[in-house]
What we know:
Elements: H1 6-27, E1 37-42, H2 45-61, H3 64-72, E2 78-84, H4 102-108, H5 113-132, E3 136-137, H6 141-149, E4 159-166
Helix pairs in contact: 1-5, 2-3, 2-6
Amino acid sequence: MTIKKEEEFKKEAILRMAEQMCLAARTAPKARGLDLLEVAVASGEAIEKLSKKMKEIGEREQHHTFLRDSENIKSAQAVVLIGTKTRVIGLKYCSFCGWPNCAEAEKAGAVCAYNTGDLGIAIGSAVSIAADHRVDNRVMYSVGMAALELKLLGPEAKVAFGIPLSVSGKNPFFDRK
Length: 177
């Protein structure tokens, strides 16, 4: 008989869960089938790098959320990063971005509402995987901003969020100070 304790498998199990979350994000429905997502998993030193950048942003912008979250993600065993590139999707009429059509929106450099809508659907798909497996998580824009500044999702990603993951007796991403 073999006994395998939680500390022997927890890290790899969380990384596998993060990978499954990325796959769920990838397969989420997208407007006109245009896939502009960038997905990645951060762990170990990459989480420290994100935390440091978040602290830098918090100090630079005098923004408490970034300072609080920079400490908070240190409790994560992995962080799922999901972002989107921005492209118009070629509609004759929409105006959800504030411009009358995609051609004018593209000239103005507007962010297509469908790009961010697709990102939200992908995030929902990802966190549903974590919830189904009882992995503690929280969607954080502060992590996404740091990932963008660090270009962790590539140079074309323009909007991003981070989802820190933890398995512990209490969800460290709620009841924050």
